[in-house]
Request: fold
Amino acid sequence: MDKTPEQINQDLLRPLYHASWRFYAAAAILSALVLAAFYAWGYQIYNGIGVSGLDRPVFWGFYITNFVFWIGISHAGTLISAILRVSNATWRRPVTRCAEAITVFALSIGAMFPLVHLGRPWLFFWLIPYPSERGIWPQFRSPLLWDFFAINTYLIGSTTFLLLPSFPDFALIRDRASGWRKKVYGIVSLGWRGTPKQWHRLEMAMRIMAVAIIPVAVSVHTIVSWDFAMAPVPGWHSTIFGPYFVAGAIFSGIAALIIAMALLRKLLHLEEYLQPIHFENLGKLLLVMSLLWFYFVFAERLTTWYGNFPSEMAVFWVTQSGRYSKLFWTMVFCNFIIPAPILAIKNLRTKIGWTVVASIPIVVGMWLERFLIIVPALSHKYLPYTYGTYKPTWVEITITVGTFAGMGLLFLLFSRVFPIISIWELKLGGQKKPEAAPALASQEVAAEP
Amino acid sequence: MDRRNFLKISAVGSATVALDACGKPEHQLIRFIPEEELIPGIAQWKPGVCTQCAAGCGLQVRVMEGEAEVTRHGQVGLLSMGLAKKLEGNPAHPVNRGKLCAWGQAGLQVTYNPDRVRFPIRRTGPRGSGEYQEIGWEEAIKELASRLSSLKPGGKALPLAFLTEPLRDHRGVLIGRFLSALGAPPAVKFEFFEQTVLRRANELSFGHQQLPTFDLANANYVICFGADFLGTWNSPVAQNLGYGTMRQGRPGQRGKLVQVEARMSQTGANADEWVYAKPGTEGLLALGLAHVILKENLRPAGAAGEAGDRIDGWSRGLPDHTPEAVAKSTGAEAARIQRLAREMAEHAPAVVLIGGAPLAQTNGLSNALAVNALNALLGSVGKPGGVSFTPQPPMPDLDVPKEGASVRALCEGILAGSAPVEALLVYNANPVFATPPAWRVQEALEKVAFIASFGSFVDETSILADLILPDHSYLESWVDSIPESGTTEAVASLAPPAMNPLHHTRAMPDVLLEAAHQVGGGVGKALPWKTYQEMLQAAFESLRSHPGSVSAKTPDDFWSEVQAKGGWWSGEAAKSAAVVAAKPSAAPATVTEPQFDGAVQEYPFNFLPYASLQFGDGRHANLPWMQEMPDTISTAMWSTWVEINPQTAERMGIRQGDLLEVASQHGKLQAPALIAPGIAPDVVAMPVGQGHENYGRYASHRGANPIKILGPQSEAETGALAWASTRVKITRTGKKGKLILFGGGLREWPREYRRR
Amino acid sequence: MVIDEDRCTGCEACVAACHAENNIATVGDDQAARGRAMHWIRVERYYEGDFPNIKVKYRPVPCQQCSDAPCEPVCPTYASYHNPEGLNAQIYNRCIGTRYCANACPYLVRFFNFFNPVWDKPLDLQFNPDVSVRSVGIMEKCTFCIQRIKAAEIKAQAEKRPLKDGEFNPACVQSCPAEAMVFGDLNDPESKVSRLSRSNRGSTLLSELGTHPKVTYLKRDTWHNGQNA
Ligand SMILES: Nc1nc2c(c(=O)[nH]1)N[C@H]1C(S)=C(S)[C@@H](COP(=O)(O)OP(=O)(O)OC[C@H]3O[C@@H](n4cnc5c(=O)[nH]c(N)nc54)[C@H](O)[C@@H]3O)O[C@H]1N2
Ligand code: SF4
Ligand code: SF4
Ligand code: SF4
Ligand code: SF4
Ligand code: SF4
Reply:
C-alpha cells in the first residue's frame, strides 16, 4: 500500500461526500424495519407486555436474549481495539474505528432491551438512584442495578474511546470542507489544531483509555452473566458464567466485526485498506475464541452431567436431546463445527470470503447460545409441575429484526459522517506493510508522534 | 382518548381499574340513597346457606359497603350498598364446620355474574333465538297466572309440568303444595348425577330412602367403590373433614383408604391402595370380600341382617363368589381380595362406600345392595366409624314433595301424545344439556305451548322459555336447606338475604305465591303466606318445641335467633327421628354382570363420564373462577379432554393434546387427548360440564359435552339413566385440540418424567 | 404455615378461596393457554408408578415465605421485600416488572400481570376492599393474606391483648375442607403450627437451596396396620 496522504484522504473521505442510490435504498429498507420495531414496541407499551410471548415460567425470552447478545457484540470493539492498541498490533489501524463503532451501537441497542422488557417501562427511572419523593433508593444488591452501572460506564467509556481519536479526522474534514460541514465539523473537532501538545495529550488519553476500558469491558459482560449466575435457577447458577460470557462476547464481537468490515470494504471500495491480512489476523483470534468457547461449553456440560443434580439434569437433557436439542446442536455447528475447521485451514483463513463464511454462523450461533442459556433453564426449574414452554410472537420477532436493521442503519449513517477508517492512524503506519499478528513492535510506540 | 388510556399513556403506574367508574357521566345522573347501617371499611358477617350443590353447607357472608350499579324502579343508577365480598363456612354448622369447597367459594360469581338475567323477559324471536324483550314484573306474573288459570284438566291431571332440580328445602315444599292445589302432577326432578339408585338401595337394605352419611373421622378402614367422595360426590366438605381426621387427626392412629374404580378419580388419587376393577363389577367384588369374611368367620354370619337377605345366596355364604371367581370377572387379583377382606375385618370400624359410576350401570342397584350387605356384615351400620342416615328435622310439611315422573317419562308422554303438557315451569334444571340424545328432550319441550323459567341464566333449556322470571341469587334471598346427609344431627339451615338484589329480579317462591294468589280459589288458600319469608317463619316455628341449637321463649325470639345462627340443628332430635321406615318387600337380588351399549368389537372402550371438580354436572361452567381453576387430575383450565391410558395412546399413536373423535352408537364428539396414567387401557373418561351451547360468555361454545353421546340404557330396577354403560370408539382427527394445562411435568423426578 | 400432604385431598378449595380473598384476576382461555394463569396457591399433582399400581401425591404450594428469599435481593426497587415480621411482602406500587424475582424464586409462585386484568361488570363488585387491585406489568404472589394478619393485629392491639393462636387464618387455610393447612406464629414455640413443624414427617420444599422456607410440609404417611408411621 503505497498511497500518498492525499490519496488516503480522498479515498476515506469519499463516502462522506458521495452516496449512491444503493445507500438510499439500503437506508430506506433498514429505516422501515427500525420503524416497524418501534411500532411493535409502542404497541407493546400500549397494550401490555403480554403481547409478547413471555409467559410463566419463561419470564425472560427474546428481549433478554437480545440484550445479552448485543452486549456481547459490543465487545467487538473496544476490547479488541484496546487490546490491539495496548499490544501495539499495528495491523489494527484500519480496524479500530469500525470496531469501536460497533461497540457503541451494539451497546446502545443492547441497553434498550432492559427497557423493552420491563412490565412498566414508564417507571424505568426507578432504577436510577436519585433522591425521590418515594424516599427509597434502588436495591444495590440487585444485579440489575449492577448492570445499570456497568453498562452506563461502558457506554460512556466506549463512546469516549470512539470519539477521542476522531478529533484529528474531524479537524481534517473541517479543514477541507466549506459550508455547513465546516461549521459542524468545526464544532465537533473541539478546536483540534494538531499541535504537539494536543497530539501528546491525545496519545496519553488514548493510552489511559485503552488500559482502562479492558477491565470495564470484561466486567460488563461478567456482570451481565451474573444476572443469571446470581439466581438459583438450574443451569444458571454456575461460577463459569463470568469468563464464559466474556469469551462468548469477544467471540461474537469479532465475528460481527469481520462481517461489518467485509461489507464496508465492498460497499465503500476500501479493498486497498482492508486487506486479507486484517481478516486473517481477526480470523486467528476468532479461531482461538471458537476453541475457547467450545471448551467452556464442554466443561459446563460435563460438570453438570457428572454432578447429576435432578433439576440440572432436566435442563441438560432438554437441551441435549429434548425439545431444545435442535437449537442446541445448530448452535454447536454454528459456533464450532463450521468455523473452527475453516479458520484452522490456512488456505481458507487467508481468504476474506471464507472468514465471512465462518463469521456469519457464529453470530447466529451466539444468539442461539444466549437463547439456550435463558429459555430451557427457565422452562425447567425445580418442580416439574412448573415446567413450561415459550413461543415468541410477532412483537418480539419484529423488535429483534429491527435491532439488526438498526445496527445496519446506524453503521450506514455512521459511515456517512465518520471516516470509517481512522485516517491519521492509518497515515501514521501507512508506509509499512501490515504484519501478521501477533507480532509485537514495542519500539514502534516511540516512532509515533 | 378515554380516561383509562390517558392514564396509561401518561404513565401513572398504580392500579387504575378501580377508577374506571367515576369518570362516566351517566353515573352522575342517578345516585340512590345509600343503604343504612353501613360503616365504610367495616365488614359485617352474615349467615348464609350454600346452594352450589345439594350438601347444604352453612355460610358466613362477609358484607361490606361498595358502589354498585343497580336497577331500582326500572332505573339504573349507582347505589352505595352492602355487597357480599367473601364466603366462608359457618363454623357452627354441623355439615361443614367452617369449611367450604371450591364451588362454595366461587358462589360470589353467581351473584355478580355478568350474564345474569336482570329483569323479567318475554321471548320475541323464535324459540332458541335468544331474542327477548324486557317486561315488568306485574305483567310477567299476570301472564303466568293467566296461563295457569286457563289450563284445563283433560279428564285426569292438569297438563302442567314443573321441572326442577331436586330441592331439599321449603321451595320444594312450596312447589309441591302449589302443584297439588292446582291439581297438577308432582314436580319432575332432574339432575344428571341423580342418586335414585342409591336411595332405593338404602331403602331396600336399611329402610332409609336417603343418601348415607359416613363417619370417616372415626373409621379405621374405608373401601370406596367408585364414589368421588373427596371431590364431587354427596357431601364433599363433610367427607373431606372426616377424611382429614381419619388420616392425621387421631394421635397414633391412621385409617386406610382403598379405592376401587377403573379411572383414578380425585378420591382414588388419595387412596392408600388403588384397586382396578372392571366397570360395573363392583358389586361382585364386594361379594367376593364378603365371601372371604363369611368363609373365614371373621365376622358373625348373622351380622348382615336384612341387608344380607337382599342378596341372593348370602345365607349360604355366597358360594359362587370365591376370590378366584370374582377375580376373573372383576380383574382384581384373588390374593388381593383375600387380603383386603381380612384387613377390613380386622380393622374395625370399617366402612364401605359406593357411588358414581358403579351405580350408573345396568346392574347399579345390585352393586349398591351388595355394598350395603357388606357394610352390614362389617357391623358398621349406625355405628361410630360407620354409615348412618342424617335424621330429618321435625318440620310438618317436609314430606310434601313426592317423587314425580322422570324427565324421560315426561318427554315420552309429550312425544307420544299420551301425557300432553301445555305449560311447563322450569327451575334450575337443564335437561336439554344433560340428557342423552335418545331421550329427545328438546324436541319434546318444543311441543309445549308455554314454558316459563325462573332461571338466573339463559341456558339450553330456558332458552326455549316464553317467559323468564329471573330468581334472586342465593345471597340475595331467603334460603333454607335440609341436608340429606353429611351429619348425624338433624339440620335445618336458614339465612335471610345477605345483601339486597342487584338487579330487577324476584325470588322464585315469592313469584309462585303471588301467581297462586292471582289464580285464586283453592290454590290461593293452599298457600296462605304472602311471602316465602312468612312460610319459612311458620315452618321453623314448629322446631321451637324441640331441643336444639336454638331455644327461645317467644316465636319472634326464636325466629331471629335461628336467623342469626344460620339455622337450627339438633343431635337430640337425631335420636327421636331415627325411626326406621318399613322396608318394602323385595325378592333377593342377584348381583349380575353389567350390560353395555355398543359391541366390544366395534366400540372397544368403556366410556366413563364423570362429575367435574370444576363444573359438577355443568352448572358451574359459567363461573370464570371454576373455568380457570386447574382440574385436580389433569390440571386443565377452560378445557375438556378425553383421558386415555398411556400404553393405549402409544399403541394408537395418540399424543397429548391430539384432537380425538369419540363416537358411540348415539353420536360423536371431538376433544383433545389427555394422557392419564391412572386409567384402565380399555376405558376412556371425560369430565361432564363443558360443551354448553347457551350458558353465558364463559361457558358457551367451549369443549364438548359427553352426555350427548351416551346411550339411553337405564339401570334395570330403578330406570335411572345408566350413564356409565356406553361403549365408544376413538379415532384421531389429525388435528390438535385446545387443551390448556396449568401443570407441566407429570412426575416429580425429571428422570422418570423424561422416560415418558 | 404447615401443610399436611397426608390430609390434602387435592380439592382445590384453597385455590378458589385465594382468588376470592385476594382479587386475583382470571386471565381467560387464550392467556391461560399462554401460561399466564395466576394461582397464588396451586395444588401440584405427581404420579408415581404405572397402571394399575399407580399413586398420586398432592402438594399445595403457596409462596414459601422464605427466610432467605432469593426473590428479594434481585429486585431493584424493593418491591419484593422482607417486612419486619419476617414475611416476604410484595409492594405492588414499587414493582416495575423486571420479572427477575420470578426467575429467582425456585418455587415459581410469583405471578405476573401480562395485561391489565379485566373484570366483566359486575364481577368487580366482589373486590375485597382490603386488597389492592393490580394492573399491567406488576408481579404478585401469595402474601399469607397479610390483610388478615394486619386486621387481627390491629384488633388485638385495640383490645390490648396478644394475638391468640389460631385467632385468624389466611383464606386458603380457613377454607380447606380436609384441614390440611395450619397457620400460626412460628416464633411462638407453643403454637400449633410450631408443634406440627417439628413433626418427624416435616420437611421444607427444596431445602437444599437454603431458602429456609416458613412453610413446612408433612409428608404423606403410609398405612401400617392402622398405626401412624
Ligand atoms: N375534590 C374535592 N374534595 C372535597 C371538596 C371539594 O370541593 N372537592 N370539598 C370538601 C368539602 S367542603 C366537603 S363538605 C366534603 C364532602 O364530602 P362527602 O361528605 O364525602 O360528600 P359527598 O361526596 O357529596 O357525599 C357522600 C355520600 O353521601 C351519600 N348520601 C347522599 N344522601 C345521603 C343520605 O341521606 N344518607 C346517607 N347515609 N348518605 C347519603 C352520597 O350518595 C355519597 O355517596 O368534601 C370535601 N372534599
Ligand atoms: S359441598 Fe360445596 S357446593 Fe356443596 S353446599 Fe357445601 S360448600 Fe356448597
Ligand atoms: S383446600 Fe386443602 S385439601 Fe383442598 S387442595 Fe387445598 S390444601 Fe388440599
Ligand atoms: S418484577 Fe417487580 S418485584 Fe419482581 S424484581 Fe422486578 S421490580 Fe421487583
Ligand atoms: S417462595 Fe419464592 S416468592 Fe416466596 S419468598 Fe421464597 S423466593 Fe420469594
Ligand atoms: S395465604 Fe392467602 S394469599 Fe397465600 S395462598 Fe393462602 S389465601 Fe392465597
Observations:
- The two ends of chain B are 52 Å apart (CA to CA).
- The longest helix of chain B spans residues 282-295.
